[in-house]
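FAQ: What does the model actually see?

It sees only this:
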Amino acid sequence: MENLTISDIFRIPDYDRAEEMQTGLLEFDDEKCTRCGICVNICPGGSIIMEDSTAGGRGDLPYLESIAPDVTLCIACGCCLAACPTQAITIKRNFNPGFFYKRLTQLDVLTYPHKY
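And it is asked to produce this:
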């Protein structure tokens, strides 16, 4: 693990920039999706949106809400994939917190708890 400098510690991330944090990206298969809405309800980040269709058709395909260009709230946890009854969802890009991940991990001197 790299050592953090003082400027690294006090640097404030700009999460609206894709370079600072790469968020998850999902793809929904229009042929397989039944528009059941399970993925919308199970998403822990609330990033999957599905709007009701008023035309009486199959309804709109779920999608990820973008909070900035190429930035979503998706962390690619896979909850929606596991819950989807028709396997209509695939992860196209995994979550990568980038530079600031170093601040979230354990140090090398820390150890896991002992099993009792």
